[in-house]
Amino acid sequence: IMSRRRIRKWQDKTISRDVLDNVMKHGVNAPNGKGIQAYEVRVIDKPELLKEMSDAVLKDMPDAGNRDGFKNIFVDAPCVVFIAAYDGYDLSQVDCGLLGENIILSAWSVGVGSCCLGSSARMLNASEAAAPYMKKLGFAENYKLLYCIALGYPDEDPKVKPRNEDKVRYIE
User: Fold this and answer.
1) pTM over 0.90
2) 101-116 burial, b for 16+ CB within 10 Å, e for fewer?
């Protein structure tokens, strides 16, 4: 847990479906309220499709590409996990967070890096040009894309950023 870092540079290496299946299995076995698993998950491991989705978003939001090192809205990852929350359960976002953390930690345990992408989901949800791609994800009617997780084999070794441990207090 303490060694995991956000990754934004990737090796040109595909994650096998066996590895992805195992990581997703660990994800859906996260704790969840009432045991209802108030989320849906989609995985795209085709970089060409991810680029098409990104290009569609840029048609509506050209400024989204105005940042250092921009390649696409998914930090150029070779694989992206799309996590949708169920709007019929008020704690669905908590379940989605637990699911995502299991995915991230499971991936890291087998050498696969990750980066949580809230802005990518925000852009996809707001882009009219990306609507066909959102439809292709096939989320059920009462589910909305909440966030994405970029996955790939790391091609960088980011250093630890300081954390404020004063955020935790014990109450007597």
Assistant:
1) yes
2) ebbbbbbbeeebbbbb
149 CB-contact burial (10 Å; exposed 0-12 / middle 13-18 / buried 19+): buried
- Tens digit of each residue's pLDDT (9 = 90 or more) over 71-89: 899 999 999 999 999 999 9
Q: Tell me how far apart the alpha carbons of residues 80 and 170 are, in angstroms, rounded to a whole number.
A: 38
Tell me how far apart the alpha carbons of residues 114 and 116 are, in angstroms, rounded to a whole number.
7
Q: Which helix (H) or strand (E) holds 22?
A: helix 17-28
Collapsed DSSP state (helix, strand, coil) of residue 113: strand
Q: Summarize pLDDT for 10-67 with one digit per residue, the tens.
A: 999 999 999 999 999 999 999 999 999 999 999 999 999 999 999 999 999 999 998 8
pLDDT of 122 over the 70 cut: yes
